[in-house]
Design brief:
By secondary structure, this protein is mainly alpha-helical. The chain is built from twelve helices and no strands.
């Protein structure tokens, strides 16, 4: 993630102040800070100079794990447009900038997939309420949906961390106690647990 918000708050500036210094509208700056639009190379440098950091630090790449940068490098050819590839070839110093673009586009695609899943969930949830004649206010419906989606995201993040680190003992505890039923109805959890189990046997 870019560090605009963190750097701005550390400097004690408002969004309006930074936007004015960059020669853009407040909304334009907001889009940068919220990663809704790409920061052009010259503006990235201007922002870096303003906050007194490197462009890599501004874009969050100084602290990005090496393996993530390698993953993004592999995606450069697939994600960048022909014009952007040519620009990168002619200006290799812009590599971090284009890695940031690749990352943001991949995240955007992931968000779109999450939105599709959320929409499908909403429909299924209303169908469930109808089938079992459950009467809830609009506010209660939204609260329950948000809670369930949040729980799902938290559990998936937990799974990915445990899987990525190969924490077999934590997965064993999860399977025996806190997430026993989840292992029964989620093929993702079952399959990933099986793969960890197999690796430990080997």
């Amino acid at each position: 993630m870019n560090r605009l918000k963190e750097l701005r708050q550390k400097k004690g500036d408002t969004q309006e102040v930074v936007a004015k210094a960059m020669g853009v509208t407040r909304r334009g700056y907001q889009k940068w800070e919220n990663e809704e639009s790409q920061i052009k190379p010259e503006k990235a440098q201007q922002l870096a100079d303003y906050f007194g950091v490197s462009v890599g630090s501004l874009l969050g790449y100084d602290e990005v794990p090496k393996n993530l940068i390698e993953e993004l490098e592999l995606q450069l050819d697939h994600v960048l447009t022909p014009t952007e590839k040519e620009d990168l070839e002619n200006n290799p110093e812009l590599r971090n900038h284009y890695l940031s673009i690749v990352r943001n586009r991949l995240l955007y695609n992931q968000r779109k997939e999450v939105e599709k899943t959320a929409q499908a969930f909403d429909k299924d949830f209303i169908r469930l309420l109808k089938e079992y004649s459950i009467y809830l206010s609009d506010n209660q419906i939204e609260q329950i949906k948000d809670l369930m989606k949040t729980m799902s995201n938290i559990n998936n993040r937990y799974l990915m961390v445990a899987m990525g680190a190969g924490y077999q003992s934590e997965m064993e505890i999860a399977k025996t106690y806190d997430f026993k039923q989840l292992f029964e109805y989620s093929s993702t959890w079952k399959d990933n647990y099986s793969s960890i189990e197999k690796e430990s046997d080997d």
